[in-house]
Structures are given as C-alpha cells and as structure tokens.
Write a structure and sequence with these properties.
Elements lengths: L2 E4 L7 H16 L13 H13 L6 E8 L2 E10 L8 E9 L8 H16 L4 E7 L4 H7 L3 E13 L2 E11 L1
Parallel strand pairs: 4-5
Antiparallel strand pairs: 1-2, 2-3, 3-4, 5-7, 6-7
C-alpha cells in the first residue's frame, strides 16, 4: 500500500481533494474522531476546512500523508510544525483517519510508521504531539505504538448537553 507525502498544495488533484473530503465526511459520520464534533456533516462543512488544510501545505511546516489502495484514498494524516522557535522542534499530528470502508487492514500502522520517519528524517522534529477524545480507546491504540499520555483536560469536550469527554494529550519521542 503506497503512502504519498504531499508538501505543496499543487500536488493535490481535484480527484484527490474529493477523496479527502469523502473520507473525512465518512469518518466523522461514522462517529469517529474526525475533527467535526457534531455529525452528521456534509461536503459544505468539510470542503472549506479541507481546502484550508491543503492551502497550508509547505515542505518545512505542514505535510499531508495519504495511504492509497489502488487509486483510492484509504487513510490520511496531517503533520504540522509550529513556527515559534521555542517549539519548532516538535510537530502536531492531526486527523489520523481511515475511511470506514477500509478499516482493519493495517494502513494506520503503516501510516504511523511513515509519519514518524517523515517527522524525524525529513522535518528534523524531535517529538510529536496529538490530542484524542477520551472514551473511545484511542489512547490505548496510540500507547501500543509508542505514544504516552502526558495529561488530560477533564470534561473538556462537550458533545451534547449532558455528554462530555476528556481531551487526552499524548506525545511521541522520535
């Protein structure tokens, strides 16, 4: 399964943009952590956010890694470096996702492996940070792959009037 790294907006074709939006919409509407907290979502909500992510791609500061099977996008992740010199040695991982129709085939593990390599070898980062929603088991998944929990914001995420989740902060040393 090939993983393609995108560092410039021009490398994202209209077809690839469409697949990114479809994946993001599918992940969110399946109830997973998709970056949109209140499903269901439609293209009109997802497209502008996807376009901003794509427009922000830059070799030194923001990369998009996409795993494909044949010509279909199955998984993707966004990696961003903060421009502040105090924290420019670490990156933030956002939107690690697999399309619901393609889950359970190992592409997330391959994507995590490649993400780690790109962050360390190409971007010169020393550590990665991410946050996950509590109550979904994500922290256990990342823990198996070398990440460790460094803190929680209890009840930080309000999903409905009486439904909250912790936001869990995690780190990976490279």
């Amino acid at each position: 399964m090939p993983i393609v790294e995108h560092t410039e907006p021009e490398t994202i074709t209209p077809a690839l943009r469409r697949q990114l939006i479809d994946c993001w919409t599918g992940v969110t509407n399946a109830g997973a952590e998709g970056g949109f907290p209140f499903p269901p979502v439609a293209e009109r909500e997802v497209a502008p956010v996807a376009d901003a992510l794509i427009d922000g791609l830059a070799p030194n500061s923001a990369r998009l890694l996409m795993a494909t099977r044949d010509t279909t996008l199955v998984s993707w992740v966004f990696l961003k470096r903060d421009p502040d010199p105090l924290v420019a040695h670490w990156g933030t991982v956002q939107h690690l996702q697999t399309h619901p129709a393609h889950r359970g085939r190992g592409q997330i593990i391959a994507l995590l492996r490649e993400l780690r390599r790109v962050a360390r070898d190409e971007m010169g980062l020393e550590q990665l940070h991410l946050s996950v929603r509590g109550g979904l088991g994500s922290e256990k998944f990342y823990g198996i792959h070398g990440w460790r929990e460094i803190g929680r914001w209890p009840n930080a995420l309000r999903l409905a009037p009486n439904v909250t989740r912790d936001e869990i902060l995690m780190i990976l040393a490279l």
